[in-house]
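Sample log: Reverse transcriptase domain-containing protein.
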Amino acid sequence: MVLTPHDGDAFPSLKRMLHGLQSKKLSYKVRVRARRERAVLKSLVTLLHNRPDVVVRRTDKSKVFYVGKAAAFARKAMQYMIDTEAYQVIPNNECPLTENLRRVTTLLNALLKRGAINQYQHKTMCPSKGILELGHLHFIPKPHKPGTPLRQIGAAMHAPSTAMSAFLNDLLAPVFLRVAEATTFINSTGLIRALEKYVSEGHLQLTTLFVIFDVVNLYTMIPRQGALDALRRFLEKHLKHH
């Protein structure tokens, strides 16, 4: 069955096709396999429910699950927090979400009062109180690397400062991309084209070295004030004629 986007009956036809597949009787072999896998899954759920010392997590860059000791997982997570000094454990019964919201709204109101931003910008950056959520840190294992280190994930999609961050990104990203266009590669195609140009201009020599490197904990290693100073110098240099 071929469904085209312009066919007015496409979605009803698709619905009928899916219903037919779901209603079709399974073969004996498939039924046996489904029962066996269901039994295995139930036994795993029961086992894990009775083993609080074991954790199951999705993994980074793979389709397998990580099963390991909860104590080892917690130790790696805590060590990361100690090494970066960028996070802290919130005590029980304490939630800084209200204070975070107050600080963001106070700052935005002060900027509006001083005329640094207009009403539209103020509204754009104001947090949506109905979906606010405290930013938090969690980890997923990287089994493809020795020792199964953890990849840190900062979840802050609904944090009080997220709208402000998005506004600033939309404002500043085009400036940076314009300046760094010649040395920034968005994807593999861009890199290949840059290499082809590099070769055609005669720069590729027998002594040419290609170097790759990875910065560990990049974002937490950059001092906040240092980043602000660097951003100020960057904008002063590249926006002086605007």
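Observation: The chain has a mean pLDDT of 87.
Observation: The two ends are 57 Å apart (CA to CA).
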